[in-house]
Amino acid sequence: MSKQEQEGAFQRILVAVDASRHSLAALQAAAELASSLEAELHGVFVEDVNLLRIAALPMARELRFPFTTHARMTPRRMRRQLRAQAHQAREAFSAICRKCQVEWTFRVVRGSVSSKLLEEAAEADLICVGRASRPVMQRTKMGSTARAAATEIQQSVLVISQDTRITAPIVVIDDGSNESARALLLAARLALETGGFLSILVPPDTSSTPEDLQRRLDKHLDRENLLIQYRELASFHVTSIIRSVQDETCGLLIVSRATLEREEIGRLLDGVACPILLMG
Description:
By secondary structure, the protein is α/β, with parallel strands linked by helices. Helix content is about 40%, strand content about 20%. The protein contains ten helices and twelve strands. The strands form two sheets. A ten-stranded mixed β-sheet has the order 5-2-1-6-7-12-11-8-9-10, sandwiched between helices. Strands 3-4 form a two-stranded antiparallel sheet. Helix 6 links the parallel strand 6 (about 125-130) and strand 7. Helix 2 (about 20-35) packs parallel to helix 4 (about 75-100) and helix 3 packs antiparallel against helix 4. The relative contact order is 0.15. Mean pLDDT is about 85; it is low at about 1-5 and about 135-140.
């Protein structure tokens, strides 16, 4: 394992952008992470082929909100709208990257959103997605793209909602394994960037003591500016994790994928509103 892997750092961060408020929140978080970790940021806008197929149907109509008028939707009109959205997404992407002073690239691809994201993710070691894209209801539900990224991509994935920033405290689950060690070290680095408050959730059956965790951090970081809180989980079940996170203010939850089954990841995403970073 390289020194960078040991410290949980990322070199190439991919963010899916579609100009929605959720994806822009993911972009802001990704740019700030890239700046803190000195990583490259790569943006992708997917022209959804399913929208183009729908637009080709004879009954396809465009409802012009907030008015009650509608117009015939055509593939040509849909392509024009997608190009406009891609341009808007690129402008937002470049502006935020310049502000955060990070190296960046941006590309537009066409296909199924989830499938294309999975393809693009092969070249990245962190993927950032909005919790939902283009929500039509006020209540936010997990979008299909975010769920696919969180459950099907093996790399690290950050899921974040609109109007949300990564702030203190940084909460991390540590069970003493090598996988969770990377999550712990990254959490400590991000805690230093966001005010120095780190909260560590420990399973009840772990052999690690607070002193063990402190020694592990001392090998890589200066703990002098860290305020660390240790909390023991009632059980190492996803319900207990959700309850513990809900009981305290959480700016970012970091958890290793190795500690959860696929269906548990889905339940965690549905049960926790704060940003979640799943370490691959």
